[in-house]
Amino acid sequence: MDNLEQIKAKKLQEMLKKREEQVNQKKAEEEDTEKQIKAIEAQVKPHMTKEAIFRYHNLKIMHPENATYALMVMHRFIEEKKIDSIDEGALKELLGRIASKKREIKIKRV
Q1: How far apart are alpha carbons 80 and 78 in whole angstroms?
Q2: If you ran DSSP here, which 8-state letter would residue 46 be given?
Q3: Which CATH number fits domain 2-102: 1.10.8.140, 1.10.645.10, 1.10.287.180, 3.20.20.70?
Q4: How far apart are CA 14 and CA 45, in angstroms?
Q5: Mean per-residue pLDDT for 84-90?
Q6: pTM confidence score
Q7: Which of 21, 68, 92, 107 has the largest count of CB atoms under 10 Å?
């Protein structure tokens, strides 16, 4: 019996250690992603008007995944020199296109 309890305790310790490693790895990945997003924001914000920055921050609070997607699109446009500055109207149009893509999903029952 004593041996069985030792094996159980050892397995439990291994499982706890593995879970802790997974949590730490996920936390490190999230921190890395956050650093990358902040770096891209630093590159994009100088090209944005005050109104566009305000709208972007509101979007970031309410819909972080849409804000990140919009940021990536704006960054790509700036890198490809397709756009010089981003005003509120351009950001609204971009957000409208993002929202329309999400609404295209339709389920049909037969």
Answers
A1: 5
A2: G
A3: 1.10.8.140
A4: 46
A5: 88
A6: 0.69
A7: 68
